[in-house]
Amino acid sequence: MATRFGILTGGGDCPGLNAAIRALVRRADQDNVTTFGFRNGWQGVLDLEAEQLTTASTRGLLHRGGTVLGTSRVDPYRERNGVRRIHEALEIHRLDGFVVIGGEGTLSAAARLHADEGIPVVGIPKTIDNDVANTELTIGFLTAVATATEAVDRLHSTAESHNRVMVLEVMGRHAGWIATFAGMAGGADAILIPEVPFDIEAVGRHLKHRAGVGRDFSIVVVAEGAEPVPDTMAMPVHPTDEFGRPVLGGIGHTIAREIERRTGFPARVTQLGHVQRGGSPVPMDRTIATRMGVAAAELAVADEWGKMTAYQSSLVIPVDLEEVAGQHKGVPESLFRVAEVFFG
Ligand code: F6P
Fold it and tell me: How far apart are CA 163 and CA 168, in angstroms?
């Protein structure tokens, strides 16, 4: 049985991280297991920046957005002596392992650390993008959907007043979960997602058809990672961040310009950006985070490493971290077909 474990949050933040931290600590405390919170994801492990967490120190966190531990996109495999420094952190803090709360990137590194380096790790999936494999939901996704849906609702009334096309750009690097859910919930007239390359000519025709039958305004929701059918439209080249990932954002403007050019309808753009990642988690994110925090603490205490807590069929269950690594869960075609029914 484990007696001490570390906790860290890695990758982009999202609502519900603090609820998971609180649950991990509370459940561990019940078994007199000590928890340490590492600052800023793997960076804090490499720099030995940690402090003991207690039930008292994690009170009042349930509803708070962000992460009190801080986060970063630091990948130990890209840092000098990264793996060795993690082993040292385990030894110095006398830890049995880590609970890592992260998205696909952080969890893939965690899976590799466990499988290849023998570092004991349990994962908890979080990301507003909801693209982690083997779990139906990730912490933060439903809050982002609520924020994006409210934006669609608000855009509806102003679109209608001005007879405009409103393009709403939401996050979703590899997957269009936010766009599909918010678009369906808000009644979007077109949804563009990375999983389904779009034909901008067909989008224009569709908006003209709507106008032809008296629907003088339209809402188009586009995921930041959406891509056109090859060779149909010029796309801007994205700069890359310090981790070599393209910095997305701005596709909404390209789409709006193309729509204006092809239809003659005035178009306006709203780029929702990091608003989707901020603020208080919706009740379902608080409960999923709480359930996953408790489940992950129980796995760690029982020395069952190499697992991730997954949400499947309304239950939180352990799955192998290796089954998650290096994969992205996209929007299934059947779901997108349902959204399409309402594009008329
Ligand atoms: O965490 C996922 C995500 O929100 C993506 O949807 C988005 O592309 C990316 O993070 C933005 O990252 P950053 O906050 O580093 O700009």
Answer: 16
